[in-house]
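Supplementary notes for students who missed Thursday's class. We covered one full example, reproduced here. Read the sequence, then the structure, then the short commentary at the end.
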Amino acid sequence: MTGNMQQGLVAHDLACVRGGQPVFEGLSFSLPPGELLIVTGPNGSGKSSLLRQIAGFLPLAAGQLFWQGAPAGPERAEDLHYVGHALALKPALDVGDNLAFWAAYLDAGRADVDAALAAFDLAALRHLPLRFLSAGQQKRVSLARLCLGSRPLWLLDEPTVAIDAASEKRLYGLLNAHLAAGGMAIVATHHRLDVVGQRLDLAPHAARTASGAGAAS
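Structure (token representation):
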């Protein structure tokens, strides 16, 4: 690995097992600074599992991950934002307090909370408990965590689900600014994204059982 690859993320021959069943295998890619990887594939192909492996939440069944030119270890969690299906928010807290909690966790400041609220047009909802918000509004609060502290790698699992067109436009603006500044992002999605990036289809990497059948979804 040379050049930009040493400063980004490189995956070599990854495999995933979920619930004792093989999901994918032989998966390799490289993501240098300033680039986006869009991960696609049918239900059960392992899109979410791949993001969790990269985040360090799920072990690799085989293969290696390299981050910044070295084998990826637990410390890479400090270099990424992960926004998954679970909102990772507290329903009893209001919007502002939820973001303040994450700001403290991510070592960000009050100005970052204000910027996060503005980025997804949440300022008017700041003092509303999360449980009173619609699914789309709650998703916007979850995505607003991307504004809390600078992290070079963003891992986004179906980020456009439940949000409206205006919020999608805001997300794309943040994503493009992140990439323009040399950041990297991996987005797992079933939907068309209005942003330019590499594409990785997991379908051809479906693992095979001993009988030769494809892995269960």
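Commentary. DSSP finds five helices and nine strands in the chain. The radius of gyration is 18 Å. If anything here is unclear, bring it to office hours.
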